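Hi all, posting the design record for the shared folder.

TITLE: backbone redesign
STEP: 1 of 1
STRUCTURE INPUT:
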């Protein structure tokens, strides 16, 4: 699993800019993570603090967003001929992709090098992977 995560991290570092990765992360959070988290979180808030019209509207709208996300995912799984029984793992995949993106952003901003097959490659000032190996 480490090799898969590290490989995707290297791909993101090599292909996307930091701003593009931040955009992907924001899109992932808003479009995939929040629809999973908001309905139960809102329901818990309503039980603990009472149901206001805004909370009810928030619960309904976030639940509709979750239903749309799941129906699109079910349709996509069908078109791709994937086993729909694995759709319940979707929240785990969202967390995994977020972890990979955060690692790629960290690498691009602070580590400034990637290693592939034992050879380290520096990132140039624009964040692109240099074509020759790092010497230090």
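Okay, here is what came back for every position:
SEQUENCE:
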């Amino acid at each position: 699993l480490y090799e898969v995560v590290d490989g995707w991290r290297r791909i993101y570092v090599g292909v996307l800019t930091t701003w593009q990765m931040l955009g992907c992360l924001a899109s992932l959070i808003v479009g995939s993570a929040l629809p999973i988290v908001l309905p139960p979180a809102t329901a818990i808030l309503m039980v603990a603090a009472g149901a206001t019209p805004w909370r009810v509207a928030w619960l309904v709208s976030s639940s509709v967003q979750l239903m749309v996300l799941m129906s699109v995912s079910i349709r996509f799984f069908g078109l791709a001929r994937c086993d729909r029984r694995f759709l319940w793992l979707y929240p785990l995949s969202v967390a995994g992709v977020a972890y990979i993106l955060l690692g790629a952003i960290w690498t691009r901003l602070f580590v400034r090098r990637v290693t592939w097959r034992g050879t380290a490659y520096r990132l140039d000032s624009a964040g692109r992977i240099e074509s020759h190996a790092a010497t230090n």
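COMMENT: The chain has four helices and three strands.
Let me know if anyone wants the other runs.
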